[in-house]
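Hi everyone,

Forwarding the result from last night's run.
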Amino acid sequence: MKMGVSVKLVGFAFLVGFFFTVVHSAIPSRQKLQVRKHLNRLNKPSVKTILSSDGDKIDCVPIHHQPAFDHPFLKNHTIQMRPNYHPEGLFGESKVKVGSKQEPRSNPITQLWHANGKCPSGTIPIRRTKEEDVLRASSVKRYGRKKHRSFAKPRSPDPDLVNQSGHQHAIAYVEGDKYYGAKATINVWEPRIQQPNEFSLSQIWILGGSFGEDLNSIEAGWQVSPDLYGDNNTRLFTYWTSDAYQATGCYNLLCSGFIQINSEIAMGASISPVSGYRSSQYDISILVWKDPKEGNWWMQFGNDYVLGYWPSFLFSYLSESASMIEWGGEVVNSEVDGQHTSTQMGSGHFPEEGFGKASYFRNIQVVDESNNLKAPKDIGTFTEQSNCYDVQTGSNSDWGHFFYYGGPGRNGNCP
């Protein structure tokens, strides 16, 4: 590195540190106390801490001391250490075939902190929340939660109708039946985010109820969110709500609810490697399904990691089944000077560019009432502004039902 560049970086780091010190000293003592209390609730005592190369601290917390058990209904809960049933037809993926060319599966995706250690049996890994993480939120109460939004119509494939809040989507969806889970293999990228208050994600939505004040939603996938995490890393995440993002639910383990049983995967931790344009492609498989016996909603990451479950009592509509499944991308467009931002969705390229350039979901499936994974019927698509972000579906014998999606945001046709 040239000396001039090095001096600039050091100077920038000094200014950032100085700015945080000044801002921190200006925070009212009452707010500092609130933040400290909240951190004490979230950051449970650990038996081991692992420092990740991206600056995260991963705490190995005894499984019975995780944040889920702060919930009053879980005080005497007996942890279900494994699901009673897996959906039938789960395994068997080995290679990706594109046209007549068969691509060997890429190296397995891991989380960055794995390079520096692992959590012992009987504990779960939890990304430690920092003071600056909470201070970036609009309030201590809202930290780790999506902003509450109003809805313009009672039914829509768009889960949080973004014309009013800047959220935009490019999704595939099914509705009109009872669904007991969903699966997809999701191409992983690191989209660029223009504004710190924006995010870009790719996920599965498990939805119940109307798109009003009673929406139930379970969500899982990957996201880049500077506001939530303080960086631009691609991270595994989950979310849930039972009242349309008003007062219930949160990202990852930032509130009580989701019960984690796995000691190897940390919610909210960086995943690596990510795909490159005209380069190696990487993807993750996510499955969410309802245990037919206990009724809890389980999540699996890849073929090897059953992560945990959302107890059925957290929900109203989803305590029975889902009425809609969605797969795809979502971004926040905060608009700058009346212009669309250049925050990318997926790879930042439009679907028509295809494999190695555009981001994809493949092998999308739903779980039926008999606990079988099957191909979805009558797949619809939705996007608010196809000139900014778009979606194109397809199917073949190797990828099953799939779609390419995403886009660059602001461009000549998306001003």
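The chain has one domain: 28-406.

Cheers,
N.
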